[in-house]
Backbone:
């Protein structure tokens, strides 16, 4: 209930409301004590906040900044995992060779295509599911928890199950496809099927998570917008298009950014999708992502220097992606 | 009344959440299962006793064979604790890290044969010279096994535990249906001395083979079998990488590619789900087979397959697998650890281990012991398999192994010959494999 200014009492003048306190007589000792306390209080006020935030920064220094700088330093050297202290300076060689490293660009391309195949349907589906869950439903809490279940499942467990489903000879998906007359698809060894299969693990895992974010945002949209739209004769679909979507714009941007970052770091799903070939991402590297390539160079082939350079290149690519995202979102905001 | 329905509903939701949660927890628990190190015996109550720790991977079977208990009885002041990591892919990088930082090391550390050359080349200074340890005699071991763990300055950093002498396991029922002999001697004679003969047996098999069966399990398996019977593989004796110029490698690659193009091998990679399932469905007629592979086959097979396998001598003998026990100098109980490692790898203990676990001894002295000569396996029925494997172990070549053997071999099979099963030519597959390998070797 807002204050009604016409009926409320006018604000009191300074010193007008409370009865004045009689001026206190202070002794010297009192004054000194007060000054000391005041100085202490000032110090406390000034420095305590730093003490309170320091754990984060100390941890960040130890586990964030130091590894970052060390990786940068290692990327300028030829250094092997078998002897990490034995470094040979090679300057920018690890970076320059990335330009004509077919495997790196192949991995970058795969990361992009897997990212698109995984992110676009995922966000569309999440939006649809959130829209449905936004209606009054029986047992809605159950559905919402169920939505989040895949997200809470470990990647390893999920991927292993998907590997079984996508088996060429004895997999359930090929078995189902043969009823509609589609021949066995070699999900692991053919390029696009393998990328679709890997993407499907990502989609399965993250759709519910994004749906819940959308749902939360949808519930914050004022109900009267829908009521007035309904009064104007807008169908549910029109309401979705003209009320829900515009109100969700910042949320959509957020999920796009987060999903893009997630997609550029895809690692566990492709690694486990062909557990035996592991980091090489299939016989023809057809689903080797940048994350996998980095791991292969660093931990399988033990070339720490090369792996560090790849890590930094990925970092720079991510920054570029972030800037592009920022520019697009500003454009969108300006146009709305 | 209203309150009651509410609580009822709440209870249902709670139950649903709880059951989902339990499922999720179970899912998560799977995650770390691989890496969980398990402490064998607790080191409590051992006042005044020395506890010796072993770092192992996979199944060495010492505990299962009762060897720790026996040693503790012989040496009342010793307690043994093992720390096992399931997969060598996880064990080995950790071992390298511990060695380079001189911390976190066990008293005894196992080393896989695939890594032994790299450890000898880069980490030899961190290990004790086992040739000088008490109770160790070089003559106990197969000559080539001993050589694998020995550096140029004659320092031996690990004692051989087991070897993987390779023979060929085959399905007698499938061979019979294809009109081939089933007796191990006759079967071995069909392809004796030449892998090309093995392929022609495959062609014969294919003509009358039961539907859906393949002559051999995988291109990678065949390539591995062929290459492991070569004396020089990817490195020459001076340590130079020669895999691209070594004619034996190209010949082995082309032979495998030929088999793949002819449909003699199933287009699969070993130890994958699909490969496991194919074994369960009895669709492979042959598998290149060190003794431990019989354990794998047993693990994957349905009960009705037992006794239907047999073991024949391979066209040329090779070796696949085996490990070493090394003692890091930074350990706490170096002298006691050396003694234990020597005892565990002595011929008598290796023979006992073979009987219980099927790990084939690397000590020829064990080959005449009854544990080996009378050995039978559930999958191979009445056949005496010990002597066949012993023969293969004695005739396997002293192979030059190099630090990056694993990367090269994996490139050749997983990024090479497997492509032939997908319609690429042998030349294209070779091109793809060498490109991957060169990129992986480039520091």
Residues:
């Amino acid at each position: 209930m807002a204050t009604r200014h016409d009926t409320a009492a006018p604000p009191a003048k300074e010193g007008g409301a409370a009865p004045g306190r009689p001026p206190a007589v202070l002794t010297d000792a009192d004054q000194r004590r007060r000054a000391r306390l005041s100085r202490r209080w000032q110090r406390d006020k000034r420095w305590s906040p730093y003490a309170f935030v320091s754990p984060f920064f100390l941890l960040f220094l130890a586990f964030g900044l130091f590894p970052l700088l060390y990786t940068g330093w290692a990327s300028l050297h030829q250094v092997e995992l078998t002897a990490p202290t034995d470094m040979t300076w090679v300057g920018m060689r690890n970076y320059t060779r990335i330009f004509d490293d077919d495997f790196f660009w192949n991995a970058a391309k795969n990361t992009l295509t897997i990212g698109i195949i995984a992110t676009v349907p995922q966000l569309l589906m999440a939006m649809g599911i959130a829209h449905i869950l936004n209606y009054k439903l029986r047992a809605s809490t159950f559905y919402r928890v169920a939505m989040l279940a895949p997200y809470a499942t470990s990647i390893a467990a999920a991927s292993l199950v998907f590997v079984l489903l996508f088996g060429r000879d004895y997999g359930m998906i090929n078995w189902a496809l043969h009823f509609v007359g589609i021949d066995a698809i070699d999900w692991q060894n053919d390029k696009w099927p393998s990328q679709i299969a890997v993407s499907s693990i990502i989609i399965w895992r993250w759709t519910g998570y994004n749906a819940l974010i959308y749902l939360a945002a949808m519930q914050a949209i004022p109900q009267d917008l829908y009521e007035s739209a309904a009064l104007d004769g807008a169908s549910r679909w029109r309401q979705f298009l003209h009320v829900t979507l515009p109100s969700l714009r910042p949320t959509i941007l957020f999920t796009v950014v987060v999903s893009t970052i997630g997609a550029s770091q895809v690692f566990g799903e492709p690694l486990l999708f062909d557990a035996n070939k592991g980091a090489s991402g299939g016989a023809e590297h057809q689903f080797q992502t940048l994350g996998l390539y980095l791991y292969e160079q660093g931990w399988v082939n033990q070339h720490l220097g090369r792996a560090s350079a790849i890590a930094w290149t990925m970092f720079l690519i991510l920054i570029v992606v972030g800037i592009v995202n920022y520019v697009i979102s500003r454009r969108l905001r300006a146009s709305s | 009344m209203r309150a009651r329905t509410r609580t009822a509903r709440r209870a249902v939701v709670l139950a649903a959440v709880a059951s989902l949660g339990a499922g999720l927890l179970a899912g998560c628990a799977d995650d770390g299962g691989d890496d969980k190190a398990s402490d064998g015996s607790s080191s409590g109550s051992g006042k005044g006793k020395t506890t010796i720790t072993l770092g192992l991977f996979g199944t060495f079977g010492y505990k299962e064979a009762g060897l720790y208990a026996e040693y503790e009885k012989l040496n009342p002041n010793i307690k043994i604790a093992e720390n096992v990591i399931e997969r060598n892919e996880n064990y080995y990088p950790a071992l390298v890290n511990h060695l380079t930082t001189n911390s976190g090391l066990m008293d005894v550390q196992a080393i896989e044969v695939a890594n032994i050359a790299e450890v000898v080349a880069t980490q030899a200074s961190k290990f004790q010279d086992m040739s000088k340890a008490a109770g160790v005699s070089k003559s106990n071991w197969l000559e080539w096994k001993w050589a694998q763990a020995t550096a140029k300055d004659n320092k031996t950093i690990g004692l051989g535990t087991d070897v993987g002498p390779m023979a060929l396991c085959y399905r007698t029922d499938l061979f019979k249906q294809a009109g081939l002999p089933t007796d191990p001697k006759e079967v071995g004679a069909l392809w004796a001395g030449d892998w090309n003969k093995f392929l022609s047996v495959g062609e014969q098999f294919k003509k009358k083979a039961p539907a859906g069966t393949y002559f051999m399990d995988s291109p990678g398996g065949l390539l591995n079998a062929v290459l492991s019977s070569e004396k020089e593989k990817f490195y020459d004796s001076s340590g130079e990488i020669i895999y691209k110029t070594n004619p034996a490698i190209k010949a082995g690659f082309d032979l495998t590619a030929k088999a793949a193009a002819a449909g003699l091998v199933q287009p699969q990679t070993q130890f994958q789900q699909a490969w496991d399932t194919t074994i369960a469905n009895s669709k492979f007629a042959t598998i290149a087979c060190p003794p431990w592979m019989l354990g794998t086959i047993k693990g994957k097979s349905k009960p009705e397959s037992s006794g239907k396998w047999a073991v024949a001598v391979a066209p040329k003998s090779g070796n696949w697998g085996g490990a070493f026990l090394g003692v890091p100098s930074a350990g706490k109980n170096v002298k006691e650890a050396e003694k234990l490692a020597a005892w565990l790898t002595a011929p008598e203990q290796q023979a006992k281990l073979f009987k219980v676990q099927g790990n084939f001894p690397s000590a020829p002295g064990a080959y005449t012991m009854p544990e080996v000569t009378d050995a039978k396996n559930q999958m191979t029925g009445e056949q005496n398999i010990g002597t066949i494997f012993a023969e293969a172990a004695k005739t396997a070549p002293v192979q030059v192994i190099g630090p990056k053997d694993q990367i090269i071999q994996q490139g050749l099979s997983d990024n090479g010959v497997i492509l032939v099963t997908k319609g690429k030519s042998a030349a294209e597959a070779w091109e793809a494999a060498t490109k991957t390998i060169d990129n992986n070797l480039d520091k």
Notes: Chain A has a mean pLDDT of 86.
